[in-house]
Amino acid sequence: MLRMMPDIKKAVLAYSGGLDTSIILKWLQQARGCEVVTFTADIGQGEELESARAKARDCGASEVRVADLKEEFARDFIFPMFRANALYEGEYLLGTAIARPLIAKHLVQVAAETGADAICHGATGKGNDQVRFELSAYALNPDIQVIAPWREWEFRSRSDLMAYAREHGIAVDGDAGGGGDDTAASPYSMDANLLHISYEGGELEDPWHAPDEAMWRMTESPRRAPDAPREMTLEFARGDVRAIDGVAMTPAEAMAELNRAGGEHGVGRADIVENRYVGMKNRGCYETPGGTVLLKARRAMESLTLDRESAHLKDELMPRYAKLIYNGYWFSPERRMLQQMIDAAQEAVNGEVKIRLYKGGVEVLGRRSPDSLFDEKVVTFEEDAGAYDQSDASGFIRLNALRLRLAARKRGAR
Prior knowledge:
single chain; Rossmann fold; 2 domains
């Protein structure tokens, strides 16, 4: 039974062209009696979006919008997140989580431009995406109405959706991305963008079941990767990649090249059981070749250019930052505050990192920077010409050992 909702005359739907959002489009017209504007984001999912545009028109959308957001996604979302070296629960590179605030931002913008009363998404009531979409939307427009059909309608399974599609003559085909649909041609729930591909559901719901090799789409199997390694040099400016092998690239171009090279050499697969924000554990498999390469190279660059305590403070704050993104708080004041600190620390993260890709691995071969804090005169094992007085270490050790010695004496006195 539908709960009472405010009267909505027009809604903007995050539309992918897949099964879920095509049915939502029709359902909004029938159950809500409202006009529907569709919005499809090209965030590098690698699908032809013209089919989504045509299908939205066929399903009765009053207006169809498709936007190329790849550069904005890389520049304003992926790169700032990577300046923090963000990993959720030590493994997940947040490929889906970081895309949701971008899509929500544009849904809210389109709603304002078209005079819509509400936005609508296809995320289920069990997942994180519903939280990410809606927290982002409310942070940008506190008065926006949000329609979440999976929390309202009578459908409970994919079979229900297929039956509805047949009843209303809705063609079922592949997913064009941007709204969180499943892919009809795949047994998995998938999400693809410029940063990653994720896989959930199907046989993956058994954490003991190994992923089928045929599932992976973005990376070559490390066992079948080229026998010849690939060496690359990444140039950084203020923490962001600016060039690869001497060729200047935009953020989206850099991510595409890193994905290509990393994927070819089997880099970036992950099989994770993670803790969803809504309370349950979930098993997901991820391919993030470019992000895996970028993280390794970035940490190598920071190891040379960041002060010890600045680097350690970043590492201490990183899990909190990553959790904010995972849980949907990209537009929160605390994330913005952390970002300002992180970005300030990147002023000196400039230089080059040389890496080698080989059969699933990323190896750092060298790093150099005009802002390097590495001083060969101090660290050398040879004569340092007085750059460091080794006798100073005696007092340093005695002072730091004082509390330990006092505690040991106390224990010995008992």
